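Justification of resources, computational component.

The compute hours requested in this renewal are based largely on the per-chain cost of generating structure records like the one below. Each record pairs the submitted sequence with a full structure-token output. That output is archived, and it is also reused by downstream analysis tasks.
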Amino acid sequence: MKAFVPLFLFVLTFGSPALGTEPRISVELNKLEAGGGSCQAYLVLENATEDAFDRLVLDLVMFDPDGIIARRLAVDIAPLAAGKLAVKVFSVQDLACTGIGRVLVNGVLGCEAGGAAREDCLSLVETASRAGVDLIN
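The structure output for this chain reads:
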């Protein structure tokens, strides 16, 4: 019984080691760069899952600095190999980088791993930003 109490207190204090450790797909908005009347967005992706994604299409909504929707895009970040770090670049046409106040991962429009469609992909996405613009989900 004495060994149970310290373990119980450890789990109560720090949580179970098995909880919250589900592998994720990290999507980081790393940089926004102006170019030719458009904004180039750089995403750094890290697939910490055991699945290779053949198709992974994010529904992204860009809000202007006042919170008004400025643009909505479907961005395919696949192929994304298991355990792989990758960079994807996409262009936001006719929108200056200064016109983007934050970006929302609104959903996943398509997701396939190993040739089979998946329904749980949005729950795998974890967002972060270094671009001075929040990336949220």
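Residues 3-19 have pLDDT under 50 and may be disordered. The radius of gyration is 18 Å.
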